[in-house]
Each structure stands twice: as C-alpha cells, then as structure tokens.
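Suppose you are handed only these lines of text.
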Amino acid sequence: MTELPGIDVETVELRRIELPLVTPFRTSAGTWSERDVLLVRVLGDGVEGWGECVAPGDPSYSPEYTAGAHAVARDHLLPRLFAAGVRHAADVAGALEGVRGHAMAKAAIEAAVLDAELRAAGRGLAEHLGAARDRVPVGVAVGMLPLDELVATVARHLDEGYARVKVKVGPGWDVEPCRRLRAELGDGFGLQVDANGAYGLGDLDTFRALDDLGLLLIEQPFPEHRLLDHAELATAIDTPVCLDESIVDQDVLDDVLRLGAADVVAIKPGRVGGHLAGRRMHDRCVAAGVPLWHGGMLETGIGRAANLALAALPGFTLPGDISAADRYWRQDIVTEPAVLEADGTIRVPSGPGTGVEVDLAVLESVTTSVELHRR
Ligand code: MG
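From them, the structure of the protein bound to magnesium ion can be written out as follows.
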C-alpha cells in the first residue's frame, strides 16, 4: 500500500439509522427484522468519508452492539482520535489502542478516515488494498426457515445466479434440511452451513452425517474460544472446518493456523478491527496456504462497498457473503446499490474511496439520531 497524504480530521458525525430487512433473518444466535446501524462520517480538508459499524442491534451475536458501539465511540474513541491528531487511517488503530476491545466501533472510525483520505488523494480503496480483480464471486446466506420455504428460497437464489448458498444450522436443524436441499436441488451447487458456535465435540455424529452431503465447509461449529476442539474436529471429519467468530485478531489467527483449527478462514473486517487489519490477516492466510472468504454482517451499501474492495484480494478464493443490496433492503442508502451480475459476481466499485456515494435524501429518511463532534 502506498502512503497517502492524509487529511485534517475536523469533524466526526455519529449517525444512527434504522433500516427494515426485506425478510427477517433467523440464526441460532437470534433473529433480526431490521438493522439499527451506527454510521461514522469524517469531514476535513473539504472531503468526507463514511464508515459503517457492523455491530448488531443486540449483543446476542457478538459482545458489541449498536448502542454500545455508539457510546464507546462518543465517550472514548473520538476523544482519543482528536487528541492524537490522527491524519492517516493507518494511525487510527494505534491512537485507539488504549481502549480494549470494541473492534467493530474502531473499525467504523478507521473506515471513515480511510474513505476520506483516499477521496482526498483521488485513489480507490480496492486498488489501495491490492485488489486483483474488478468483480468478485458472491454467495447468499439463508436464515432458518420452514423446510418447504427453505428449499424454495435456496432455489430462487440459485436462479438469481448466486455462486453458492449458505444455510444456518443448529442442533435439531442440520442434517435434515441439508439432505432435503441436496435431494430436491441436486449436488451441482455450492452449499455450506453456518452453526454460529451452537455445537460441541459431543455432536460428532451430526458432523459425520453432514460429511455425506458434499458441503463446501462447515462454519463455526463450536463456540469461538474452543480452538482446540475445532482442531480436533478438523481431523475427525472430511468437511472443511471454517472459523468465523473465532477470528477476532491477528494473535488468534496465528494460533488457529498453528493449531490447524481451521481449513478455511472467514474474514469480517468489522470484527477484526478494520479493512487494514483484514488485509494483513489475508496476507497471513495466503502465506499459510489457507483459503479465505469474506463474511457479511447485513451491511448497507456503505459497508458493502468497502467489503467488496477487500474481497477482491487474491486470497479470497471462495465466494463471500456479500450479496446484492436487494437481498437485504428495499432501498439502500447509496446511489448505486450493489447488483448481482449474471455470472454470480458483484462489481467492485471504482472511483475514489469506497467508490459509492451516499444518497442523502434516503439517508435522512431513515436517520434516528445525528451528533457532530469537533476536534
Ligand atoms: Mg458465520
């Protein structure tokens, strides 16, 4: 990554919006019907940049949640950002390291500074991160649904052109829905499952039964701290084990790679503290020969554009959870929402920064609060 000239961060806006999902999303970690999102807008040197915090509205999926991220950003992170006189996105993590945890809130601030800094320099995020392509293959995640509805929903997404489908599973809802999908829709499509940490090593029989279904991978079978159990599972079954929630930072990733606890790694930039950390972790996985895919957190067009830039790096060899905007929203908050191409890919936005423009009229219509913080 080349060095950027930097910007004078004068004002930071913290904005909350509420967007209803097209359909409620049910997993073993909870159900979401709408997204309460914290957005960060950085203004300075005549440019602005946007970042999206991926924290969900309640702390059932991750310890971080929207109202908590908002509070920590306002009371602890922005004062540190201003005190340090940060001019570069690459310096944000260091300026905020006095606050423990809160990776999602920190990542949103870094994303906004990075977007502003790149726009000031007239450079695109994908190019800056080292993207290898201008479109990325994408998948779609389907929540827990009644069986007939599940089959119909997956069939529809395959018709739409998605390169692979992921279904949420949990104890009592695993082998049967996957068997039914294979029986009705065949073996010709990529199918993976996500347990969101709902199982334990005592469930080996379930995983062995899933082995017969030709799954691309099983994602986060055990709770996030169970690295040794994941290593044991990875040698006990044929289906590749993928870690998602476990991958919280570089140190944990290093342990995961040393232990052989994951055959595949999912990166969510929000969870690991930002796209710059995500890029470093990508490089580490590539060096270790471990394939990656890019996760999703029901982002709006702001977060999705940044994710597309990272997902365009060469180590992301499996389709990511970066679906088209209409999978989630009736109306996105950017002027050119992501659309699925006929070949199962989404175009990586080009142009300065993330390459997307916020639709301010739509944004205002879904805004629930706005605060301005000045240096
Ligand atoms: Mg997951």
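What can we learn from it? Residues 194, 196, 219-220, 244 surround magnesium ion (CB under 6 Å). The chain has two domains: 11-122+357-374, 127-347.
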